Amino acid sequence: MKYEAVIGLEVHLHLKTKTKAFCGCSTEFGNQPNSQTCPVCLGLPGSLPVLNKRALELAIKVALALNCKVREYTKFDRKNYFYPDLPKNYQISQYDLALSQEGYLDINPEGKIKRIGILRVHMEEDAGKLIHKDQVSLVDFNRSGVPLLEIVTKPDINSPQEAYEYLTALKSILEYLEVSDCDMEKGSLRCDANISLKAAGAKGLGVKTELKNMNSFKGVRDALTYEIQRQAGLLERGQKLAQETRLWDAEKSLTVLMRTKEEAQDYRYFPEPDLAPFIITKDKVEEVRSAITELPQEKLARFMREYNLAEYEAKILTASRKDADYAEDCIKKYPAEDKKTIVNWLIGPVLSEANTQNCAPSELKIPGGNAELIKLAKLAEEGKVSHLAAKAVFNESITTGRPASEIIQEKNLYQVSDSASLEATAEEVIKENSGPAGDYRAGKENALMFLVGQAMKKTKGKANPKLMQEIFKRRLPRCVRE
């Protein structure tokens, strides 16, 4: 390609605290507009901020999980700008002495490990929310002051797909840490992207464009793809790029100019005078580190090692912490040394049904819970119920709310595995289908499945097909020469 894309991402994350970053107002989502405000988060004269201890601990937790160095000495700053949803006309943030820096997150594009550098992870407060309706704009300050974490990458990302994979991996870690609900629809996780193009092989960077208003990871990928094409087109025509902020219009699939980009000096940063600097001791850091449980990549590797899973199987099962815990509970309780059967059920029928109901596998309401799922999978593995019947029973169980064992009993779906009975059935089928029987003996493999199918018809689907195959093979020795 003639140009190379250089991309950096800024993720803004609501931390899961009961109260705001610097006051005691609730952070609960969806309440009456402007019902969760006070003089502090509204910036009224005489009010003083006090840092939320829980927010600081969660921020340190994220920094450590992203392999960042946590500063011993950190402070807050005022980022000054005017916008209608910013009641104080400044945002309490961090500038030159951020909470942490120099981290990384590994992704795996095209089967190769790529390390994305984390420039910094720092704390700040969120602004309010503007609602544009008809000819007026309304403002809700409930979100103003909610503790926010900003995770900024180095410009190490070189394609929209890499950006997508980074965001997916980051979200998985954040969910495992339980520091946020990561709900993009609620605004709990938001992402801005910085992108520039440079001539292939060039050392310098091109003119940067900031992209906003992307409410999904797919939206980030689509916006970056469009912006690469837009910037390349301008450069090909000999036009100069301007540093600007652009909005992503998902309906029209294009970016539109929002404003020319401000520089850091435009925000007139200075130390927050109402908050003293903070000393974060090594003991505090180690206390937080000890509370970090198994992270996605660690759990993925352990699942592959302990349960003999392929990577793609382990990735599905460990996609989220809740799903991983749910899957491991089923795997551990499955009464067999080989766990392949229950794994196939988890990544097959269970995942399929969860996708149909638009929920996570761990949220799927299975009548009778894990015990019924395990029992059903075991019946299918032992051949007591056919795999086809077992899957149909599972779907019916989810739909009707009745346990699978009850449905099997009621419909008498247990397979016939009695040798004498199956031998008699095989004898009848061979007599009635001498032609296909002769074809199989002559070497036509497909004829065997025809005979099994006839046996299944005679027994109304209750014959064990695996045993029927064995019986036919024994009764019809091959006469074809090798």
Characterise this structure:
The protein is elongated and about 95 Å long. The protein has 15 helices and 16 strands. The chain starts with a strand and ends in a 7-residue tail after the last helix. The model has no long low-confidence stretch (mean pLDDT 91). It is α+β, with helices and mostly antiparallel strands and 482 residues long. The chain folds into 2 domains: 3-288, no CATH class; 419-475, Arc Repressor Mutant, subunit A (Orthogonal Bundle), CATH 1.10.10. The longest helix has 20 residues, at 217-236. A 9-stranded mixed sheet has the order 2-6-7-10-1-11-12-13-14. The protein has helices at residues 53-65, 160-177, 217-236, 282-290, 296-307, 311-317, 321-333, 340-356, 369-381, 387-400, 404-411, 419-432, 434-441, 446-458, 465-475, and strands spanning 3-14, 69-70, 73-74, 77-80, 90-93, 100-107, 114-125, 129-133, 136-140, 147-153, 189-199, 209-214, 244-249, 254-260, 270-271, 278-279. Helix content is 39%, strand content 20%.
The low-confidence runs, each spanning 5 or more residues with pLDDT under 50, are none
Continuous helix count: 15
State which percent range the strand residues make up.
15-25%
- Overall pLDDT confidence: 91
3D shape: elongated
- Give me the secondary-structure category: alpha+beta
- In the sheet with the most strands, the strands line up as 2-6-7-10-1-11-12-13-14
Distance between the termini: 55 Å
- Secondary structure tally: strands: 16
Instruction: Report the helical percentage.
Output: 25-40%
Specify Rg, calculated over alpha carbons. Answer: 30 Å
Question: How many domains?
Answer: 2
